[in-house]
Amino acid sequence: MQGYCSIGCEASTWATAATPLNMLSLLSAPLTQLLTFLLLATVVSAGSCNLTDNRQDCVAILDLYYATNGMLNWSIGKPICTWPGISCSQLGIDARVTQLNLGNLALQGYLPDTLGMLDQLQALNVSHNSLSGSIPDSIGNCSQLESLDLSHDQFTGEVPASLSSCSKLTHFAADHNSLTSWSSHGLCELIYLGNLSKCDLSEQSTFDSDLSLACPLPACADKCQASCQAPVSYTHLRA
Question: Virtual CA dihedral for 46, 52, 57, 58, nearest 10 degrees?
């Protein structure tokens, strides 16, 4: 029997507990103990990662799976590097997730904060889905990120300033969402440093407004094709 580790257990424990040798030793134990062990092993295996997976990548990927309502065609329990849309630095032990290509999959849900645990991620594409909520601030922990495509979704809130930590980022697209603000930190710093060669924040809108980005915008806004809407005064609202 192959051992698995869930988010809440130590990999070494189940790697040891689920070996054939230990299974044989359990045969001499009372039948109730054996049945209890098999039941626990089944529960742990369902919704867990393979023991060859990097633990922090495992946590982030599983959280993404459940945050998108399990809509991804992923085989839970098999190595995450074999799952559709996931590319890794290598196969086998010590492999790290380097790319997530999950565009145009009709995904719903949100991006979990644990996404920042993918600190070797180089490219993330979740474009042309129906993802909502805010862009997690933890995205700044993905320091190896070179390409980030969040376009044609339903993201709201601000563009996180933590993106300034993604010094290798050259491509950022978050057009066709409902983002409301962004500061001069983050993207502007990357633009001024000359690293971010492509930036698109155009077509931000809500159901009741053509533009959702509020003025004033940072000085670098033109580099990201961004436009804003001035706040409507209370007097105008009453009229």
Answer: 10
